[in-house]
Design brief:
Elements (H helix, E strand, L loop, with lengths): L21 E5 L18 E5 L10 E5 L7 E7 L9 E8 L10 E6 L5 E5 L9 E9 L4 E3 L3 E4 L11 E4 L4 E7 L6 E8 L33 E3 L2 E7 L6 E10 L2 E11 L15
Antiparallel strand pairs: 1-2, 3-4, 4-7, 5-6, 5-8, 8-9, 8-10, 11-12, 12-15, 13-16, 14-15, 16-17
Length: about 280
């Protein structure tokens, strides 16, 4: 009958797979078994069922890792097993103890691949105790589904080292100095050549002091990698390359959290041969 519509329903447990298409055949049968000539030779007409998109399954266990730097926090989460029907994953953030990350916050990252971590870098001008709330959503064209929220209480960044300079640079060492600061527990130093893009991975300070450079007041177990003289901290690096230009990064530490950093440039002494090597041989 022209204009007639039919609704096909599925029993619980018999719902067709999502993201699949299905063919249905409609046979027009007249009196005496004759078929509608508008149908295919087989006597059937095909109606294709539209693809049905399931709601995505939200990630869970949204967790903030222990903060190791004052200007960022790393989040991890657990994705649902495939298929989770998600086309992308959206991470939201808001500021305030009772805020809603989705309605009151900002979409800070969207990722189509199945990654399960993200580092949020929010900068060094954050007040101590600032609260951020996070929520991640699994997204597709049908809807979004959300994880529970996670909260980060941010530590303020330690003040940067002040008064950094090169105290001495000969004959085979560079001695750096900067102002001592009672608000800072320690420092870590890394070095690169002036022409390099990145710093070396390992801190220059010996691992016996956990990678920190301490002044006299806060040195653990009496071990000093730095000395304090008249309110100035000193640290010496033994260098071999003559006339090489270095850049040192001095990062402040409070507790176990890295804070602000400053850079100090220094140049190793040029090498001068002994005077007698310049004399002609007789």
């Amino acid at each position: 009958v022209n204009g007639t519509s039919y609704t096909l329903s599925f029993e619980p447990g018999a719902v067709p797979d999502y993201d699949m298409s299905y063919d249905f055949w409609i046979s027009a049968v007249g009196q005496g078994g004759s078929r509608d000539s508008s149908c295919a030779e087989s006597g059937t007409c095909t109606v294709k069922m539209p693809i049905c998109t399931a709601p995505p399954i939200a990630p869970n266990n949204l967790t903030l890792n222990a903060q190791t730097r004052c200007d960022r926090v790393t989040l991890t989460w657990v994705l649902a097993s495939q298929p989770d029907y998600a086309e992308s994953y959206r991470l939201y953030r808001c500021e305030g103890a009772g805020c809603d990350p989705v309605t009151q916050g900002t979409l800070i990252h969207e990722e189509a691949s199945r990654l399960n971590d993200f580092t949020d870098v929010y900068g060094t001008n954050v007040s101590d105790g600032t609260v951020y709330r996070y929520q991640i959503a699994a997204h597709n064209t049908r809807t979004d589904t959300f994880s529970p929220t996670a909260k980060a209480v941010v530590a303020a960044c330690a003040p940067p080292a002040q008064g950094g300079s090169v105290l001495s640079q000969c004959p085979d060492h560079l001695t750096l100095t900067w102002d001592a600061d009672n608000a800072v527990d320690g420092y870590t130093l890394t070095r690169k050549l002036l022409t390099d893009a990145d710093y070396i991975d390992a801190p220059l300070i010996d691992a016996a002091t956990n990678g920190y450079c301490y002044d006299v007041a806060t040195a653990p177990d009496g071990v000093l990698d730095c000395t304090t003289v008249a309110g100035k901290i000193r640290w010496t690096d033994v260098v071999q390359e003559s006339s090489t230009r270095y850049v040192y990064k001095v990062e402040s530490i409070v507790g176990d959290i890295m804070g602000n950093a400053v850079e100090i440039q220094a140049r190793a002494c040029p090498y001068f041969p002994k005077w007698h090597s310049l004399l002609p041989n007789f």
